[in-house]
Design a protein that fits this description.
This protein has 113 residues and is α+β, with helices and mostly antiparallel strands. It is 24% helix and 36% strand. It has a six-stranded antiparallel sheet.
């Protein structure tokens, strides 16, 4: 899973592992540009429905209203975990509680296309 930013990894997982259509890539947006990342999120959030954590759900981490990071909820060894990636750490798996500690607000979404 290396070589992806958090947005690309999430798109890839939803499409190739959960059979969802690819959502917009916004490949022109640099992952550090949180303002444009938030704008991209606003453009596609209507394709998602808020949900509880479950396998294949998208998790979004926010600070002060800006989207900072996204990933997917995965079922690993019988536990729900968050798969996400960053330049500093690469692909990572964290518990939901550990992921939530990184952000002011965390939202879970089901992709409905």
């Amino acid at each position: 899973m290396s070589g992806f930013d958090c947005w690309g990894q999430t798109r890839h997982r939803l499409h190739h592992y959960y059979g969802q259509p690819l959502f917009e890539s916004f490949g022109h947006i640099h992952p550090d540009d949180k303002s444009l990342l938030t704008d991209a999120y606003q453009q596609i959030v209507s394709s998602f429905r808020p949900c509880e954590p479950s396998p294949g759900a998208v998790v979004c981490g926010f600070k002060f209203g800006s989207l900072i990071h996204i990933g997917t909820v995965e079922l690993i060894d019988g536990k729900l975990e968050i798969l996400h990636t960053s330049r500093r750490k690469g692909p990572s798996i964290d518990s939901i509680d550990d992921f939530k500690r990184l952000f002011k607000e965390v939202k879970f979404y089901e992709y409905v296309g």
